[in-house]
Specification:
Elements (H helix, E strand, L loop, with lengths): L3 E4 L2 E4 L4 E7 L8 E7 L6 E7 L4 E3 L7 E6 L4 E6 L8 E8 L5 E3 L3 E6 L1
Parallel strand pairs: 2-11
Antiparallel strand pairs: 1-3, 3-8, 4-5, 4-9, 5-6, 7-8, 9-10, 9-11
Length: about 120
């Protein structure tokens, strides 16, 4: 089973930046997709950025132009660079990935708190 470990969360002021990292226990090269989701208190989990095996990326409207997903296959790592952070970006951020023929995996999450 794939294990995903996030890091890089923390407390930042509005307008600041953070870069999250997600290390996979297995190769991410052949994953159908790798991405990031988030869940704020009292809200459903939402996917904010996806990097597909065909090289395409998709972002939630709420983060477009501010967040950038990238990957380093050699390090089995996916990143989420978050700029111009807003208080409404406060959430637990989860890494997700899917192997061909399997369901999606999720990490344990890392807390991001944006103060106003």
């Amino acid at each position: 089973q794939v294990q995903l470990m996030e890091s890089g969360g923390g407390l930042v002021q509005a307008g600041g930046s953070l870069k999250l990292s997600c290390v996979s226990s297995t190769s991410i090269f052949n994953m159908n997709f790798m991405g990031w989701g988030r869940q704020a208190p009292g809200k459903a989990r939402e996917v904010v950025a996806i990097f597909r095996s065909d090289g395409t990326t998709t972002y939630a409207e709420s983060v477009k132009g501010r967040f950038t997903i990238s990957r380093d296959n050699a390090k089995n790592t996916v990143y989420l660079e978050m700029n111009s952070l807003k208080p409404e970006d406060t959430a637990v951020y989860y890494c997700t990935g899917q192997e061909p023929g399997r369901g999606a995996y999720w990490g344990q999450g890392t807390q991001v708190t944006v103060s106003s």
